[in-house]
Structures are given as structure tokens and as C-alpha cells.
Amino acid sequence: MKITILPNRVIMTMENESLMEALIRHQLPVQNVCNGEGTCGKCKVRITRHVSPPNDRDLEHLNDTELKSGVRLACAVKPEEGMVIELNFVASQDRKESVLLGLKATTLDPGIEKVFVKSSIPSLADERGDWDRFVDELSIVTGKNYPKASIHTLSKVPYVLREGDFALTATVYGNEILDIEAGDTTKRFYGVAIDIGTTSVAVALVDLNRGDILKVLSAENEQTAYGADVISRITYARESQEKALTLRASIRRTINHLLEELAAQTNVTKNEIYKMTIVGNTTMHHLFIGLEITHLAVSPFVSVCNRPLEFTADELGMDINSQARINFLPNIGSFVGADTAGAIMGASEILEPGNHLLIDLGTNCELFLKTDDTMIACSTAAGPAFEGAGIVHGMRAKIGAIESVTLTEEGTVSCQVIGDQEPIGICGSGLIEGIDEMRKVGVVNKQGKIVDPEKVQGLSPELSRRIRMGENGREFVLTYGANQGFDVTLNQKDIGELQLAKGAVCAGIKTLVEIAKISLAELDSVTLSGTFATYLKANNILNIGLVPDIAPEKIKTVGNAAHVGALLALIDHNELAKAGELYRKISHVELGGSPKFSNYFMTSMYLERNS
Predict the structure, then answer these.
(1) Among 37, 46, 279, 347, which is disulfide-ready with 342 (CB 3.0 to 4.6 Å)?
(2) Residue 478's CB: how many other CB atoms inside 10 A?
(3) Rg of the chain over CA atoms, in angstroms?
(4) How many whole angstroms from its chain centre is CA 609?
(5) Within a 10 A sphere around the Cβ of 26, how many other Cβ atoms?
(6) Helical spans, DSSP H, in 1-83
(7) Which is one GO molecular function term here (predicted)?
(8) Do 397 and 486 belong to one domain?
């Protein structure tokens, strides 16, 4: 059967497959937090022609307005001939760009350079080969020898030399010539730094002559169609070699789509990109390269490789200059990856004398503690709640997402929305602040329970009116729907999801501090990393116990430090060498099965300051 995906994509569906399965098979974006089980309610699509009747899954997760407007769950829809589907009907706004664009290079030494040379013209008196002639001149200019010749460059040299009237530009890496171009192209020299997150992927385009960031783009990691977190993706990949290759293709396709979009939005062609640096957790690292991940999932949780790696773009199927170099920062352990190494490099003040804690918040939360005696790191499975997944009205930080909430005891409810439009959901920063505000005015108690307005005293009439029963227990209305037609709420299940996530982070911090044999009071700084963390407020995270109770002035945010680390390694190859030295000094701690962690986790669930 043929169905149309707006605006202009037509796909063929197979007999007995769901719309979700068809979209995934055709590599089309669709949220799939629960792997098609029908429990998450996130795979919403809008059907504009041949709308199927709602089934039990639709009725459980969608409100009347959504149902009437043709919204259905893709996992519940059986495709019909002529069906027309809208997928992403929420415009995106990239927070990552504003976080990174202000970064300026202090040192510019990418390790790759472009060199312009003008060669002599052959004659009967000078019968040197084209390659010999060019390389001899290049050696005079750079003072280096170039003993190797690749088929790629060797086969091009006769044409390139004559096209440029024997003037050409060589892209040089050490004593290796990566590429040659006719004429002087030294001003056209670019690189990209990539942060592969479990939920989203960010790509920054950099002018390697000046160190300026030209553009930052991000997109949802296409692997989310096969699971929301690293454990679900490891499970999926272990089912068969074909599924492992599917995950590899998904992340490579995500990055190549972003590279294509960069080319469309700038005047930089993909062939002018000569270097790429990548950070990501160990699972993302292995899936992208195509390494075996079976042993990451079972004790003793062994990765294939932790040290820094280098490949060509051609080897990894990246749509940039085929000879470009791709550098991976080192992993630290099974679930503490190159993103943590990048974050340490990107927030290098945590390596100064004293006791400094780095928290890289995300679907997989990494912790790094540096004292005067040791450096240790661990990960804790915070889950996707911080990214809005698993929350009924949760969403990524896009236009229409509530990012900040203010409540007063008198009953005033104020929400700040990305894009200043009517809210359609809530992102991670809004979730944390919203729950803290609900706690502050008495809507939620420290156990995380939404109170019964008929049994509690002192709650204003307006706040009481906003508490009602829903499908997931009591819920609190943040905004009443108008044009969109539905209310944005936080319910009892949402609060429980946050408690699990923040409890894991807080317990991980306490465990790490105890292992290092220092007290919480002895921490000189706590640095929160991640684009999401940039929008958090110290009092909110202290009030709900996301981090243990310490002096607020010790807490700071640094934006997406992991991506900054990738950028630093892109523009200065010495930073990559530093990361290679650093990872060997860090001890990796596995929290799974730790009695200390389990005990701390149970006491870290309360919505209160946690000592």
C-alpha cells in the first residue's frame, strides 16, 4: 500500500506491519520510547486522509481534541491505501546553538593545514614526474618530507596541476598529503565537532583558519526509534547482527543529514570539511563505529576500546571530504564515555587544585570527581525524564515547550514558553522547576505525592481547582488549552519519573564522595554540564534534592561542556593529546550492585534538600 508522508514523501507499506514499523523501516523520524509496546504514548502522528478509528492505545494516551484532529499513535495504526500522514508538526528551535556560538578559540592548531604551492612547469630539461615536482616544492615550503603517496591524491595530480596552471593547494596532516586542489583554496578550510547524545545529536561547523564557530545544528538521534536509553539499544543490537547494523546506519544517517543541512545553510561544501572530532557515551561510540557491544551489558562490563581512535571519513561513511580525519576522544569506562572526557576538557577548571565535582546531566548521567589525591568517574542511569521522555506532556526543548514555571501561594501560575507561544508540552528545565514550585506552595509533599485538595488546609482556591484526577492519578494543570485544545499538566507518574532520575544522580554523588574519602562540605565546586543543565537554577536542584545540600554559590553551569571539549580538540590537536593522557589517570567505578549506592538511592527520593 502507498501512503504519503507530508510534504512530498510516498512510501510503500508491507502487509501486517504497523505504521510505526513502516516509518522506522523507511528511516522516518518517529518517537519510540517504549519500542512499540504502546505504553509511552509518544509516537504521535496526525492523519489527514483515511483517518483510522482510535483503538484502545489511542484512547488511553490521547485526549478528545487530539483524537478529533486526527492524531493517532503510530504503533496503533494499520496503514491504509491513500493514507496521508504528518510527522513533525512542532517547529524546532535549537538551544545548543546559543550555548556554543559564543565560544572563541584561544589556540588554533588543528594538526591539519592547507599549504599553497606553485610548481615549475615540466620541460625537456626537467622531466620530473608531476607528483615528484609537486612534492619537492611542498617540502621546500614546509620543511617536511612526504614519503607516502595515496592512490587518491596520486591519481588526481596530473589534472589538478594543469587545471591550476601548476599552482595548487595541498591539505597536509603530519607528513601525509590528504588531498590536493587546483589554485589557492587555503581560505576554504573547515571542520566539524560532533556530540552524539543518546537522545539528540549536535554538530558545530568551524572555520579552521580563524577558529570561529559558523553554525550549530542538532537533531534527534534516529536511534531513538529503537529505544530511549543505552540499555534498550544494547538489548536491541544484541538480538541480531542486522539490528546492530541498523543502529549503526541510523546514527550515521543522522549525522550525514545534519552535514547536509549545514551545507544548505552556509556556503561551505561538505568536501571542504577536513577534520571531525566526536564525543559520546561508550554505547553511542561503539554503535557509531560498529563495534561489538555485547560485553558492555554484562559484568564486568568491558568495552572494545577506550583509547583515542582515528579513522578516515571514507572508512566511517561520513559525507565530508573522503580523506578527512575523524578523531574520537577516549572513553573512560563501560558507561562513562568520551562525552565525559570531553566535558572535563571543556570545563578544565575542575582540574584545578581542590575537590571538584562534574555532573554531566542527560539520559545517561556521568559523574567525575577530582580531589587532590584521586580522579574517579561513574555513571548512573537517570533515564530520559530530563529530556522530557516518559513524561506525559514531556518534550524536548523546542518551540512550545514550557521551560520555566512560577507558582505563588495565592494561586498565580506563570509559565515561560520557548518561542513565546501557547504551550504544548514541558521540557526538562520546566519539569524540575515546576515540581519544585509545586512543592514550595504545598501542591506536592516531600514524598512526591500530589495532595488531596479536600484534605489539606491552607491551599488557595485556585491551586486547589487545578488539582484533579487523571489517568495516572492526581494531576496539576499548569496551563489550560485554548488553540491547541488540551491542558498541559504534571501528574503523579511524572513526578515519580523525576524522583527516580534525580534520586539516581544524588545517590551517585554521595557514593562517589564517600569512595574518595571526603565529605560533601569539602567539595569546592559542583559543575553542571549539558545544554539542559544551562537552564537549571541552583535553588531548584537543591530544593528537590537533585544534588545534595551544599552552598548554592558552589554550584555553576557550563553549558554543553562535552561538545566544547570536542570543539577544543578540533581546533587544537594538543587538546586531543591531553585527553589521551587524562583518561588513563581516571579510575572508573561501577555502581551496579553497590550496597552504598542502593542505600543512598532509597533516601534520595524525597523532594527536599538532601544532606
Answers:
(1) 279
(2) 23
(3) 27
(4) 29
(5) 12
(6) 19-25, 56-61, 64-68
(7) iron-sulfur cluster binding
(8) yes
